[in-house]
Amino acid sequence: MIRAAFAFAATASVALAATALLAFVATALLACAPAEPLKVPFTHRGEVPNPLVWRADHSEHGTLFLLGSVHLNKERIGNLGPAVGAAWQGSEELVVEIDTSALSSGEISALMERYGILTPPLTLADVLPAELWQRIVVYVRSRGISEKSIMNWKPWFLYLVLIQLEFARAGYESENGVDELFVRAAEGTMPIVALESMDSQLEIFDQLPALLQQQLLEDALTQADDVPNEVAALVDAWMRGDADRLTELVFQPLDEKPELAIFYDRVFFQRNRSMTAGLEEIARDRKTRLVVVGAGHMLGAEGIPTLLEERGWSVVVLGGLVH
Known about the structure:
With 323 residues, the protein is of the alpha/beta class. The chain has helices at residues 4-11, 15-25, 27-30, 82-90, 105-116, 124-127, 130-142, 155-169, 178-186, 198-206, 210-223, 227-240, 243-256, 261-282, 304-310, and strands at 53-58, 62-69, 93-96, 192-194, 288-294, 314-319.
């Protein structure tokens, strides 16, 4: 069973802010080379996925194609199937959570300083229990990293670095994520509209209770060696568009650990409501748009398709297995 520590990063849009930030501060740790610009979308000849995609229509708000995405993969996904292809071809704008391509290195550096760094002279050893700190030291040394390089990071920031590091070690890269595919394809050809800012996404983690940050770190350390199998299960469920399996993988930890309620509420449910309201606002011009957000935001009674339906939209399933 995949834990919340890793499930969110593959399917929740807040992971995009983390990815952009880590690309700047953790290049040496992750050894990530920049991807070449994508000139023609959907050309890979591998397995054709059947991802979750909906069409939402409203007489006063135009049309929204809703694609649930994964934010990382081992390779760039090629043909996303006829439903997604038609949605892409028929859309006038691309809507994403944040447009990471618009961020400069200076802006990212400032965000890191603002959100991810402890106030001197505090260090991680000061704010974490001694036993947890020793586990962290053992972990980073096992990955060839000096504990001195992370001493001034906040616990939640180290948590994000840890999960991105494990994804990369398992061969899963954010540059192969579906969101990145569409952003690269849209650059210079289609307007890109962001529903959120990087600040707002990072604030979510910066405002998590200290004990919850510690728990996320502990879970991530415990599950680090299981990442390849866990993320493979998520990506497989996404490829098949299996809404029930994705819901199980992403939200079962909440059933087993009620103390994670704050995490899920802030990372998923509150933001689902906010993004739904944002979609309605930008859709007043009645344009047709393709909306690409993490699959975790599309699932269940509190997912974006259901929330739109409750607001009077007509929502139909175009792809995936939704019961």
